[in-house]
Design a protein that fits this description.
By secondary structure, the chain is of the alpha+beta class. About 40% of the residues lie in helices and about 15% in strands. The protein is built from 18 helices and 15 strands. The protein is globular and about 75 Å long.
C-alpha cells in the first residue's frame, strides 16, 4: 500500500478546500448527482462515506456499498478493486438516488477516513454532522443511465509518474475520456474488456455480401456508417500523437488503452484489404443509414461493402490507409510488437503501390460517400510516401514524397481528413531537416495565429469552418504542438495550442467535450448514446429535448459559430454531431500538453 496515514493527512489537507457536490438532474422523487474529491497525491485503495440530509436509496457504479446507517442517510463505500488506484487529480463519484421530494443535500463527506469539506479543516473519521460539500444545482448535466468513465488509474494499465493537473484543466482525465469515446464507436463483436456498458455487439454480418468478414472498425460519427477515408486519417493522426508524445501516454497510464484503441481499427483495415489491389472503402448505404434513428444492434437495413479495385481505383482512400498502417506500425514497433508492426507495414506498402499505380478519385467509385475528396489525391500520395519513409527509412519513399511535394504544389497547406499538405510538411521536415519544409509550415501557421488573417471568435477560438469548428481548431493546435516539439516557434505555438484546447475544455464558458468539465454537452447528435440500451428508439427520441440516455464520454462536439454561439441541440449536426476525426487532433493535443508537464 502506497498510502500511509501521514500521506493521507497531507493529501486531504490539500483537497478539503476544493471538493463539491453537484446535482445534475432532479425528477422529483429521483435525482442524479456527482461528488468531486480533489486528490493531490495518488492512492491505492480507498473508502468513502456520504452523509445526506434525508433518506435516499442509492444506486452507484464506482463503489461497493458496505453499510448504511442513520435511516439510510449515511453510506459507507469502498473501491471496486479495478478502480482502487486513484491518481492525483479530481476523483469523481456519480450516482442516482431515489428519495422523497426534491434532491437530497450532501452534508458530510469522508475519504479514506478523513473529512473532506469545502472550507476549513474538518477532522471527522467516518460519520458525523459536518457541512461537507456545497450543493450546486444542475450546472453539469449527464445521462440517466451510465457508468463514470475510468480515470487513468482505473483503466487497468500501469501508471508512470502521473502528470499534475495544470491550471484549471485535468488533461489526463480528458485524454482518458477521449480514448473511451473511441471505444463507444466500436462496431462488431465487443470484447470482454468493453468499458462502455451501454454498447452492445452489432454489425457482425458486415461483409457477407462480398464474402469477407468485415465486422469491427469504428462508426464514423453519430450514424452507423464505416467510412474508411476519414477513419484511416484518424488512425494516422492518433498514431502520430502516440509517436510524438509517447511519454505523455505512458505517464498518464493510457498507452495500453490507446494501443488497444487503434488496434481495433487496424485489425479491421487489414480485413478490408483482402488482396493487393482490392480495398473495401465503405460499409453501409448513406441514405438507408441516415433514414433511421436507433441503436446499432437494432439496425436491419442492408449494409453493402463498397470496394475500390485496380479497375475502379480510389487513390485518396488507399494512400491514406497506407499512411495509417505505416504510422501505426511505428507505434506498435516502439511498444514491443514487431510482428504486428511488420504485418501493418506490408499492408502499407501494398496499399501505397495500389494508390500510386492505379490512380483514380475514390468518390467516382463510392458515389454516396459523405466524405468526397475535394482536393484530390495528390496530398494523400505525398503524405503516404512520407509516412512510409518514416516507417521504413527507405530512400525511394522519401524521393517520391519530395518529388510529389514539389510537383503537386503541396506547400499551400491545409490539415483535415481531406487535406494532408501541412501534415506532410512536418513529416518531411522531421525526415530531412530541410529549411523549405520548415518555412512552409511557418508561413502556413502564420495565417492561423491571432492577427494572421484567419477568423477568430470573440473569445479566442480559431474558426475556419461552421461544420465541426472545434475539429479544425484542434487540428491546427496539434500541428502547432508537433512543430514546437521540433523547435519551430516553440513558445508561440505552445501558447496558441493551449489557448485553443482550453477554449474547448471550458475557457469559452462551458465545456465542449461530453462528460468533461463545466456544463458539458448533454445532447450530442449520436444515435447510440441517445437511445436506451434496450427498448424502442426512433425519431421521436431524436426530436425530444431530454438529455441523451447515455453519456458519450470524451466526445468533442462540432462547436460554436464564428460569434461563440453554441446551442446544445441534438438536431444541429453542424454544431453538435461528433465524429472520429474530430477527436484525433484534439487527443494528440491533450497528450502534447501533458508532455509539457513532465
Amino acid at each position: 500500500m502506497r498510502c500511509t496515514a501521514l500521506i493521507l493527512l497531507a493529501l486531504l489537507g490539500a483537497a478539503r478546500a476544493q471538493s463539491y457536490y453537484e446535482v445534475t438532474g432532479d425528477w422529483g422523487d429521483r435525482f442524479q448527482a456527482n461528488v468531486y474529491i480533489p486528490v493531490s497525491q495518488a492512492v491505492n485503495g480507498w473508502t468513502a462515506t456520504l452523509k445526506f440530509d434525508k433518506a435516499v436509496e442509492l444506486e452507484i457504479w464506482l463503489a461497493e456499498v458496505t453499510s448504511t446507517s442513520d435511516g439510510n442517510t449515511v453510506f459507507e463505500l469502498k473501491d471496486m478493486g479495478w478502480n482502487a488506484n486513484v491518481p492525483a487529480g479530481t476523483f469523481e463519484l456519480s450516482f442516482i438516488a431515489n428519495t422523497q421530494g426534491s434532491a437530497a443535500n450532501l452534508v458530510g463527506l469522508w475519504f479514506n477516513g478523513q473529512e473532506v469539506t469545502s472550507g476549513g479543516t474538518g477532522t471527522g473519521t467516518g460519520t458525523g454532522t459536518g457541512t461537507g460539500t456545497t450543493h450546486r444545482p444542475s450546472t453539469v448535466s449527464t445521462s440517466h443511465t451510465h457508468a463514470t468513465a475510468p480515470t487513468a488509474a482505473q483503466s487497468g494499465t500501469t501508471l508512470g509518474v502521473v502528470p499534475p493537473v495544470v491550471g484549471a484543466y485535468d488533461y489526463v482525465d480528458a485524454l482518458a475520456k477521449s480514448i473511451l469515446f473511441y471505444e463507444a464507436q466500436r462496431a462488431g463483436n465487443l470484447p470482454g474488456n468493453n468499458r462502455v456498458p451501454w454498447r452492445r455487439s452489432c454489425c457482425q454480418g458486415d461483409g457477407q455480401d462480398v464474402g469477407i468478414d468485415l465486422s469491427g472498425g469504428w462508426f464514423d460519427a453519430g450514424d452507423h456508417l464505416k467510412l474508411h477515408f476519414p477513419l484511416s486519417y484518424t488512425i494516422t493522426v492518433l498514431s502520430w500523437g502516440m509517436i510524438e508524445f509517447k511519454r505523455a501516454y505512458e505517464a498518464a497510464g493510457e498507452m495500453a488503452n490507446a494501443l488497444d484503441s487503434i488496434k481495433w481499427v487496424t485489425d479491421y483495415l487489414i480485413k478490408c484489404h483482402p488482396s493487393k489491389f482490392e480495398f473495401v472503402a465503405q460499409v453501409g448505404d448513406t441514405g438507408a443509414d441516415h433514414a433511421v434513428w436507433c441503436q446499432p444492434q437494432a439496425m436491419t437495413m442492408y449494409r453493402p461493402a463498397k470496394k475500390v479495385t485496380a479497375d475502379q481505383p480510389g487513390s485518396e482512400v488507399t494512400a491514406e490507409t497506407a499512411a495509417a498502417m505505416a504510422a501505426a506500425s511505428i507505434v506498435f514497433r516502439e511498444n514491443g510488437d514487431s510482428g504486428y508492426a511488420d504485418t501493418l507495414l506490408q499492408h502499407a506498402r501494398d496499399l501505397y503501390e495500389f494508390a500510386d499505380t492505379y490512380r483514380g478519385d475514390y468518390q467516382n467509385v463510392i458515389h454516396d460517400t459523405p466524405y468526397p475528396s475535394f482536393g484530390g489525391m495528390n496530398d494523400e500520395l505525398t503524405w503516404g510516401a512520407a509516412w512510409l519513409y518514416r516507417a521504413t527509412g527507405e530512400a525511394g519513399y522519401l524521393t517520391k514524397a519530395e518529388q510529389y511535394y514539389d510537383e503537386y504544389g503541396i506547400s499551400g497547406g491545409g490539415f483535415s481528413w481531406d487535406e494532408k499538405q501541412s501534415g506532410a510538411m512536418l513529416v518531411l521536415y522531421k525526415a530531412t531537416n530541410k529549411e523549405k519544409y520548415k518555412n512552409d509550415i511557418v508561413t502556413y501557421m502564420s495565417r492561423k495565429m491571432p492577427g494572421g488573417g484567419d477568423t477568430y471568435t470573440p473569445k479566442g477560438m480559431l474558426w475556419l469552418n461552421e461544420w465541426g469548428s472545434c475539429r479544425h481548431s484542434a487540428n491546427h493546435a496539434f500541428l502547432a504542438l508537433v512543430a514546437a516539439s521540433m523547435g519551430i516557434n516553440t513558445g508561440q505555438y505552445r501558447e496558441f495550442a493551449a489557448n485553443q484546447i482550453h477554449y474547448m475544455l471550458g475557457d469559452s464558458g462551458r465545456s465542449l467535450v461530453v462528460g468533461y468539465g463545466h456544463n458539458h454537452p448533454v445532447r450530442p447528435h449520436h444515435r447510440a448514446s441517445t437511445c436506451p440500451i434496450d427498448g424502442w428508439c426512433d425519431w421521436n427520441t431524436y426530436n425530444n429535448w431530454d438529455f441523451n440516455e447515455n453519456v458519450l464520454y470524451g466526445a468533442l462536439v462540432g462547436g460554436p459559430d464564428a460569434h461563440d454561439n453554441y446551442v446544445d441541440d441534438r438536431s444541429n449536426f453542424h454544431t453538435n454531431e461528433v465524429a472520429v476525426d474530430y477527436n484525433a487532433g484534439f487527443q494528440g493535443c491533450l497528450a502534447g500538453l501533458i508532455q509539457l508537464t513532465l
